[in-house]
Amino acid sequence: MYQYNDFDATFLAERNRQFRAQVARRIDGSLTEDEFKPLRLMNGLYLQLHAYMLRVAVPYGSLDPAKMRQLAWLAERWDKGYGHFTTRTNIQYNWPKLHDIPDMLDALSEVGMHAIQTSGNTIRNVTSDHFAGAAADEIEDPRPVAEMIRQWSTDHPEFQFLPRKFKIAVIASEADRAVMKSHDIGIRIVERDGLRGYEIWVGGGMGRTPMVAKQLADFVPRAELLPYLEAILAVYNRLGRRDNKYKARVKITVHETGLDEIRDLVEAEFPHRRAAFSGVDQDWRDRIDAAFVTPSLTSRNTAPYQDARAANPVFAAWVDTNVTPHKHADHGIVTISLKAHGATPGDASADQMRVVADLAETYGHGDIRVSHAQNLVLPHVALADIPAVHAALRETGLATGNIGLASDIIACPGMDYCALATARSIPVAQGIANRLEELKIEHDVGQLQIKISGCINACGHHHVGHIGILGLDRAGVENYQITLGGDASESTAIGARTGPGFAYDEIVPAVERLILAYMDLREGSDETFLQAYTRLGMAPFKSALYDEKAHAHAAE
Amino acid sequence: MPREFTPKVITANALLEGDVVYLTADDRWSRSLTEAEMLTDEADAQYRLLQAQARSREIVGAYLADVRPGPDGPEPAHFREDFRRKGPSNRFHGKQADGLEKA
Question: Does A356 lie in the same domain as A283?
């Protein structure tokens, strides 16, 4: 885990001191809201439907026990005893008071955390593979690159007022667990002729105009990454559509300008940027690399794990969904579901956060991750210790065995919290999960990703859900559109709309019809929902959605 | 014929707590929609909104929200305002928990 040095700590203390004074000036009337709003947004403070919301950055989703315990403390001391983990691997507090925010930020700085650049038209929190450092298929840990980008982009004077927000993801394997191609820039660490370098993808995004990123460069050498990124940002900063918020993301710039033209402009800009880099970034890189060493894992007897699997069917079922093979065969990657049936996706109580911190300390080499799917991960657990981890998780309601299944739903906060939302998301997720639990079918259904957004901005990633749900306001009533065939993996695809939307009380039954139709249509239980959809196309699913609905109405 | 004016209330969020508040006829900020002043004249509504927006040391983001007259005072005309006066539907937090909801 990267630890702040004196420079980082001093920078953060000064920034917090400034914001404390800005909050005081807002409260005493010296600053108007128009003056204060950009200042609070620079520090991650939003005003939502019912209260302020503080969005705290969790860089590339990495936490340690001290950080997690401090997040729990904030939840208890200044919020309502819980926090909400987001699809950007951040954590949000839904109920802070304005005058408490400076104290919250100071408390975060004690553990090297902050809320800077979690809002505004800046480079946002850099995300990465939540299995980084543990996955068997990675060529290196992608987090040092993410950390280097974090340091370079934090308070970068040239990129504080971009045309629009800017999101970067870094991965290091063929498999994409970070939705890399839905980012403004996606970086994949690759190896060519024995040298490490970077594939650069640009112009991906969700929102009202979803696009899959296009490859801008197939190999940027290791030492040239930051100047290359800077060249892209400089081109975007100049060309981006500041005249129209809905056309201001780089995906539109790439789309309107053309990929080849963008590449020419970036390559023309690159030598100037390269010349300005003294090589100090590579010196940082060595220091950063040293902070991300996979813990030395001793060989452990796996018999207790095998015995528990054989003896305890509940444990065995949980392992099947929630434990992923580790690069060390006698260890496992444990995903902790924040999707108990009927719970709010991504919410964790302060007590639950502390249990996870304790487990990471006792069994997990002090390493915790937040995944973009709104779950937590213990990346390095000896198989022999997993039964004890599972038992402890059960005690605190965190042992739901549903990772990758239909109730492992991504849902944005929606109109229960968000001021931008056009409909609710959370109760739809709760309704679907509860229904699946009643029917007891989700293990039979298998791999199925349902993703729900409460507005066109698509924070709930609905475009890349196998089943995507988009909540809209249609003539003053909540209405939910369904898309099918989206794919968040390395074969990224945008889902296609099925047709007219469904009312709030119709959407859960509609999803149920889709799932039951799939079970009828599939060629054996090995064929996943997405594979069946790819083979059969939209027609039979459309029929299940709309013809059966018509039958049901006729029968009433 | 000009279109009939939908009745409005002035609503905002309290500066310090962020709570949803409504402007009353006697110029208080109430936590309860039922106490809000219902504005039935467009010019009057715009004037009251300007007055409300000037109180930026107390509130943030004042705007006019559509309401319907009800037996206990104004009722929300849109589901967004219905959520704002109650709190989130996934947790018993916000106004519904503070006993300030008069549904």
Answer: no
